Amino acid sequence: MKKLALKKLTTMLTLGLLLLLSFSSQGQELDPTDHEPDQSVRLELEEKSFEKNIYVFPLPDSSLLLYKQPNFGSFKEEHSFQRYSKDLKLLWTSDLELEDQPDFHQLYAAGNFIYLLYLENIPRKFFILKLNLKTGTNQRNNYNLRKHEELDADVKLDHFKVLNNNIFISAQTSRNSLVIHINEATQDIKTIPALYDQEDALEDFHMDTISNRAEFILSETNGIKGRLQVKRFTSSGNLFSNTLLQPPFGRNLVSAQITPGDSTQKLIIGTYSHRDTRYSQGFFSTHLAAPDSIQYVDFINTKHFFDFLSKRANRKIFQKAERYKSQDKDLRHRYRLLFHNLVEQDNVYYLFAEVFQPQGGTNNLYRWPGYYNRIYSFDRYFPYPNAFGRNVPNASEYRYSHAVLCAFDKNGKLLWDNSFVLKDVVRNSLGQTTHYAFAGDKVAMAYMHEEEIRYKVFTRDSTSANDLKVPLAGNNPQEKVTSVEDGGFVHWYGPHFLAFGYGRIKPQKGAAREVFFLNKVSF
Fold first, then answer.
1. Euclidean distance between CA atoms 195 and 236, whole angstroms
2. How confident is the model over 367-398, as pLDDT tens digits?
3. Is the pTM of this model over 0.90?
4. Dihedral sign, CA of 448, 454, 457, 462?
5. Domain boundaries along the sequence of the chain
6. SS3 of 462-479
7. Cβ–Cβ < 8 Å for 471, 499
8. Which is the CATH superfamily of the domain at 49-144?
């Protein structure tokens, strides 16, 4: 009897221990605080929003540039540039006076220099300020397009980038899109004839610093058929290669990006449609050296693209797709994707996009400022909003449903996909809302919504929570950020993001303070 009782007791203890361990392991697996970001590194500046515009630019060397632009107009204005370390320690300050209130248009980082493009009050006149990142010294070069008769009087400058001291500026007129080339050493200006095309034809362009090529993707359509052209140029603006991507009948190529590196290994990755080139049906990939070998992946064949739908709607769309498939038909999708820069890491290419819907009217949902989209531009490893191309609609506002991250191997095969469901995100202008970073073997996606940071952490195509969030941190846990004005959120470097803006911060005791804050958000 004693042996039997002892055996029963041992069995009960073992089962109890296993049950306890099971609950413990489940709790650890589901605990969102395991991935909660750290915000202990932060900076506050005593600035007022009505006095200055402050622009924040993460730099390729993990440092940070702050540009303070005065709000009150005068003939001469003092502009201030400050560079900070990754610990938000001030490295240097550089001040200069600019006359006649020029319009700051865009910034680009190349090597040890920052280029800032300003539009002057006289049409077709502009200047570029070149800032030395090590010393803070600057050099100004003035340009006048009035001297170039081949350019229409209504030419408008868009994005610009720099390759080996050569400046490429995308531009538009009422008749066509074009690219202006400036030799920084000689100050010679020319247009590139091979890039004259239909208005809004320029889909994407970037500087490949590995192969030293300026690469442009043009979208061409007659309303029924859509194809892409990839044109690559030397740094001096001479045509190096021209590749046509012509899909088979019944399919159109909507938009795409090109991978960096050796020409023989380059991939073109983007989206395709069936008929209406405004909407995407799925992803495609092909080799630049073999443009006819196009691989297609319908959204319905991905794992997480439709996670933003309710369980019932998700189930219905897959059931509908199966019915169509049994009839040898494809279920047509009506999604618009805003691409961000293609990134390569550990021999895998990552395509990141946000799904949006243009809308009219107004509502009370949170809106992001539009100015940041226009000026935020770096090389391909530092994403900026890609609002090129004819697939960009004009609307009073844009509602975002979810962000999608896709991983492709060197052969263009889709390895895995994941998505992040966005809630109540509406912008007045089309631009990047969500950013992502690699944190060890995991990926973190995040965006700032009012006074909180919303995020998701996952491993490859695993299923994880979409509703994690933390409040913006103050100097201590007792402080609370009660409002944010002109806020921004960007990926900085590694597993680190940056949240910033004018904020009102309420301590546990005493009066609230209004400051410009920068929070390093680390996963």
1. 14
2. 333 334 434 444 433 434 444 444 556 678 89
3. no
4. negative
5. 49-144
6. CCCCCCEEEECCCCCCCC
7. no
8. Periplasmic lysozyme inhibitor of I-type lysozyme (2.40.128.460)
